[in-house]
Specification:
homodimer, about 400 residues, alpha/beta, Carbamate kinase, VC0802-like, 2 domains, about 35% helix, globular, ATP-binding (chains A, B), EC 2.7.2.4 (chains A, B)
Chain lengths: ~400, ~400
Amino acid sequence: MPRLVMKFGGTSVANLDRIRRVGKRVGVEVAKGYEVIVVVSAMSGKTNELVGWVGDAGGALYDAREYDAVVSSGENVTAGLLAMVLQSNGIDARSWQGWQVPVQTTSAHSSARIEDIPTDNFDAKFAAGMKVAVVAGFQGVSPEGRITTLGRGGSDTTAVAFAAAFGAERCDIYTDVDGVYTTDPRVSSKARKLDRIAFEEMLELASLGAKVLQTRSVELAMRYKVKLRVLSSFEEQSDNAGTLVCDEEDIMESNVVAGVAFVRDEAKMTLISVADRPGVSAAIFGPLAEAGVNVDMIVQNIAEDGRTDMTFSLPVDQVERAEKAVRDAMAREEINFHDLIADKDVSKVSVVGIGMRSHAGVAAQMFAALSAEGINIKVITTSEIKISVLIDRKYMELAVQALHDVFELEKG
Amino acid sequence: MPRLVMKFGGTSVANLDRIRRVGKRVGVEVAKGYEVIVVVSAMSGKTNELVGWVGDAGGALYDAREYDAVVSSGENVTAGLLAMVLQSNGIDARSWQGWQVPVQTTSAHSSARIEDIPTDNFDAKFAAGMKVAVVAGFQGVSPEGRITTLGRGGSDTTAVAFAAAFGAERCDIYTDVDGVYTTDPRVSSKARKLDRIAFEEMLELASLGAKVLQTRSVELAMRYKVKLRVLSSFEEQSDNAGTLVCDEEDIMESNVVAGVAFVRDEAKMTLISVADRPGVSAAIFGPLAEAGVNVDMIVQNIAEDGRTDMTFSLPVDQVERAEKAVRDAMAREEINFHDLIADKDVSKVSVVGIGMRSHAGVAAQMFAALSAEGINIKVITTSEIKISVLIDRKYMELAVQALHDVFELEKG
């Protein structure tokens, strides 16, 4: 029988009424003849409650193994409840906790990676008549037999990993939005839902702040060619609802640009007139990484008289930490510099699309559109399928709307 | 090193402040040189929340395996949190869920019995420097690898089972009362805390409604000679605080009667003038058991003219169910009877004491005391160390006080 993986996030299982709706939705797929693996998150709010407690209990130097043992319990609750709901609908179902499958992971607690998912156990149960395996997402078990978790959003990754392991026809990610949009509808009223998007594009969008899917789950889906579908758990669904995240080849025609993404609260730091000698980059960015600063864009100006300006972007709430790390590093390494300045009022806006590979002039078109609106570009970085710029935060919405227009994203 | 088992119930771990107090208390025992196994319940309220959800999810014919998977999660949370608190106090501790030990149980979900607790794992960890193993109470794992629970109050049983398996010097049950009393202090102001009580007495008191310890945990402690101590988690403790539940031989001197117990909301049913022929008792009490009625006392009058009256007591909220079961059974078996009457306004009062074995006249003394207060006795049953009577509910407090006085329980 064909197999399907369905994943339901926290808001989709927030209470028993919603879990019953999930049960109905799963029943529809069972009726179509699928053997279904359902991956569930904790009821919304529950994980935060648990995280709050472990924060209080453990202090700064908490034991990540205990953290995982506590925080994973929310998913176990949902899995059991959904199995009961399915059973009361007459569907042969049972719940599985990570260690029962077992979902074998590394020992990197709180950010473990799935190493293996043995299939014999489920295969035997499906052969014996089980219709639905309900799996507690986000968790696994380490080689030492301790409970691990996969990090925030890890249930997406669990779902994709099961889809890969069991050769599922598709992995449906049910969430509180009805698909992936060309941009955030709250910023542009012209935002359009995409029917299909390539893995590579989704990866860029996910890492750029479109919070629909966890980045790692998309990477995994791309590697194992798992067809991912993002759709709403709050609407009646047809067979081609939502957005299909798939291989480039499966997308017949596409716009050059698939979407416009943004990160509102960024900051820009510039180290002015620093000695330009070998090792200076390492001397700056090594300590920043150690201080836990998530440096994103990095630009270095052409050196003049053996000195250069070094600019990088980072989340705005990490500026103080970054400033201290850089000044300490410069003093320790005896590297001379003129000034360190921070601009806390910038946003990042990006256009993403696999079409860029074959279409020249996308960057020029982007810069012209921003210029036409009088928006000054502060930093630019590009990849094969993405162009990102830093601009003043007050222009962010305007920039998104202008780019959405110029690349005609409202048209399918 | 000597070993100690400490068990903390739901109110003792109701929030993080209380869990920190528990951490301090455990630290005191570690400082004395004990290797400690701590058994914890779910934070108070949590198990009820989970039970409510599974009730909603599963309906009447719920799957007890899923019930157990859900309901056991509360203990896992407490175990992890306490381990973190202990670690932040500099104590080498870790948490263990039932399946990790593993606490091997029968497959009787929701009322499983512990079959075995392998000790190698803990022994190795203790030898390697671990000071405290925090165990999630109330749960285990079945031969099929499913999570089981031991029934309400099961954490007491977990604690005693660990104490037996590891040859612990003592099993301290921390609760919200400071020990076992001669009777409920809310009913008699003269109630006195007992320093020691025999297992047999505790068993009778536990099953008679003194809710300090789960009956099964006392049975287990008696069988494996585990010294049980009941004490308060809300008071500073000395070495001989609380009440020690121990072997008869360990109690030097004791009163003839150890305590007066009661069950307030009982009912009495009488089947009047039923045909007295072989099998009639089975015809009545079989169907009652099947209907889930907890019949307690049973009295049959002397038969006259081949007919007899049959009286039994039961919890007051099971009267309707019992009435239907009895009438159906009588009709099905074609057993003739005159009437079936129920008295819903009775209470059970009992005196318990191992001293009764060697002291005659306790029953006479009890009946005289009740008679002196004008209290009519409706049903009497006796065991080797217990005498129970059913009386009108309105006299319950009076009866308890009178019996407490006549057996001089206020004196040590």
